[in-house]
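Supplementary Note 3. Input sequence used for the single-chain structure prediction.
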Amino acid sequence: MKKGMSIPSEDVIFNALSHRVRRDVLRLLQKNKMSYTALLDHFVISSGKLNYHLKLLSGFVEKNDEGIYTLTKLGESVLNLLREFNELISEKEKPLLKKAYLSQLGKNKSFLHIRYVGGIYIKVFLLIALFINIIIFSIMFSLDGGDISRLLPFYLMLVVFAAVGFTWAFKLYGPAKKFVEKIDKLIEEGS
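The predicted structure, written as discrete structure tokens, is reproduced below.
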């Protein structure tokens, strides 16, 4: 590092705390020293992702010669800062915190809503687009003098595929929407 270079401490701290896995690693190590394997067993992530998060926590955690991870004094200070920050948020400010959270997600939709309900919309859109493309292809084929009866097995397969796809989408839409609403309600009550 260059002499006289200032370290953007706020950026470093916010980056370390910006992901749930990193915050959880810090909290776990505050309770106990842990091996890499114990940390990996705690999370449902790949070893590559854990390595990535541990690399970003350099300075907040350290590994000894036996491969045991511990929290540094800086890590302890950051966790204390995070705890104090959470204690400072009043009940009146919690709706504002929720508003900020939703605005960061975009269009006031939770990640679950975008992932599950939005995913169903995309699948239905793709099925409709496929169906329209095949109709256009059929019209163009018949205008070129092609025998449309040769395409009947293909049409039958398309109808079955579309029926299964639409049935799946409509059956899944209701439960997915209810699931997302239930989770969002639990998050709202918890905050």
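Residues 152-190 form the longest helix (39 residues). The radius of gyration is 26 Å.
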